[in-house]
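Onboarding guide, step 5: your first structure request.
Type a short instruction followed by the sequence, for example:

Predict the 3D structure of this protein.
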Amino acid sequence: MYDAPMFSTLYRYISREILSPLLLGLVTFTFVLLMGRMLKLADMVVSKGVSLTDLLLLIAYLLPNFAMITIPMAVLLAVLLAFSRLSADSEVVAMKAGGISLYRLLPPALAIGALAYAAATLVSLYALPAGNVAFKKLLYHVIEARLNLNLKEQVFNSAIPGLVIYIDRNDEKSGRLSGIMINDERNPKEISTIFAEMGSIASDQEKRKITLHLERGSIHQPGEKGKYRRLEFGEYDLSVDLSKSVKSFEKKEQDMTLAEIRANLGSGGVSRKLATEMKLELQRRFALPFACIIFAIVAIPLGIQNRRSGKAAGFTFSIAAILVYYIVQSFGRTLGEKELLPPALAIWLPNILFLVGGAILFRQAAMERRIEMLDRGIAAAAALAARIGSRSSS
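The system replies with structure tokens like these:
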């Protein structure tokens, strides 16, 4: 029999082994995901004149989206690396020799998985919809409020969807534009080129419309059979409806709170397709955070099997496991959208499969049985990591 203080010390020791790579995984995975968006964000700074404050706010609003992915990934990586290190240093063997079964080592990993699940659930239910809505509002504000300042002189500007604008002079203080040329491609069948001596830009925030007021100019349009049409004007207003031009500003199911989704489903005033998507999103808000607990179980046998492959292979193997998880999730969501599976089963399918597979792997590891297929996968991950490492060093 072992007393409680001994297990308390052991659990604190294992928890410390998990927490370090957990923080490392959160930072690393968040940075990788952010790099995927950095080109678009950099383009907004260069072409749209977004300030550093607005850029940092946009990044902050993206973090809840990233956290829904990075938190489960970090849990899988952290537990896998921790038990891989314990196994590589024969500490797991020493514990088993002292009569401590693998099942007694499960509580610290489960506790950290449960804390990660609670954090991910809070993000999913509250931070995610708030972040999505705030991101779209700020993005709209950037396009609308800064549009006049973004029209650089003697440069072809494409800040307004469907229009390419060239201006000779832009007086930022008065908002007056001069020497204007506009290529209107919003309707491919009626492409027109507009010239104007002077002009200005006005916006309507409520209707989400931008109006270019042009003075003393002409409109040129190609006609049928090589004909050409020209229209002179003294004043002309060119209106752009941003609500139709930028569809990403529309509020989708990912932007709705839990109460809004349930209210829309309860009202019955939505289409069947949208109702299905809302039901899937409702299940996703709880299923994805629950993956933290499942990954904590799956990672223990993976880490023990991966005892001699190193951290690089641990990263590669954890990413491969995550990739399989999201492929199954995407497959289940597709079946749910086509109504071939109930929404709950469609979204929880990867959790069910990984939980069953993890339980089998854990039992095999507890009985000290090697899994040949898993060994081959780890060996392949180690070889891939070594190949990537050799290329980066050269």
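Each response can be followed by summary notes, for example: DSSP finds eleven helices and six strands in the chain.
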